[in-house]
Amino acid sequence: MYFTRRSVFGLTAGLLAGGVTPGAFAQATNWPQRTVKFILPLGPGAGVDIGARLFADRLSTRWGKPVVVENRPGGDGMVAINAVLGANDDHTLLFTPTSSFVAHPYVHEKLPYDPKELIPIARVSNTIVVMAVPGSMNITSLKQLFEQAKAQPGKLNWASTTAGNELVVQGFLKTEGLDMARVPYRDNVQALNDLGEGRIQMYVAALAIVRPQVQSGRVKLLAVTNKERAASDPEVPTIHELKYPGLAFDGLIGLFGTRAVPNDVREKIAADVRTVAADPVIVERLTATGQVMSPGSAAEFAAEMQEQSGRFAEVGKILGIKAAQ
Q: What is the signed CA dihedral for 144, 213, 179, 184, rounded to 10 degrees?
């Protein structure tokens, strides 16, 4: 099955039209009937993992049934996605960043699943994504960094943690005529160590990943790619404030299910997520992981995914990458 922008977001039209068939599954009045499982495409300890466990604990209390978190990293999110699709029931959900979907058409020719079978259920939060440089580097702003890159073509190195961030940065560099060498990493820890040592000069990653090195002074933050500043680091400006909209990217995180999840169950889950998200204790703990609480309905979540898809389509045109057909 080819993975296209149309196929990914064909689910949006069906969702907004209420076209998902409930089938012979539990309805909201008596759901859940057994343990609910959140499957994650990331390993333990990641900000998404911490958020999933916080919500799982509170939702378990609300639902009167256990909510367990199962980590299935690997395959650029496809291992977790296939696990959810393989279960195909209304008690197995995907808790994931939207980068598991929106960048795929520009980094994979084929996918081993049909993305139309995954339906947005609830937006949960936004990961704060930052642009960082070595603390030892005589740079205090993005403008200075890009001026140096322009003056020294090919001399500065950069890296990112996700395919989505990578595409956005590549599109920006090409538009601005900047020559910076991308260094691929399989291990975020190694990338961060190299940043701290000055072997790479720009790193685009989740705030939670770089924060320990920022606190030690080995790394400096220059910008936040999200629409709003991070509450935990309010002094760091946003990309929009710095007039670099081509680098903007919001790390959306939310819950997905298959078409086995009835409409009213999806509405129930989204409503309960909003209730949990209003708890000041949960907000404080999630903020500490470099996230911003941003609960929303299935329709709101799908609309934001559609917006992100449009951004990647633009980047694809800039880079000359044709989305998989």
A: -170
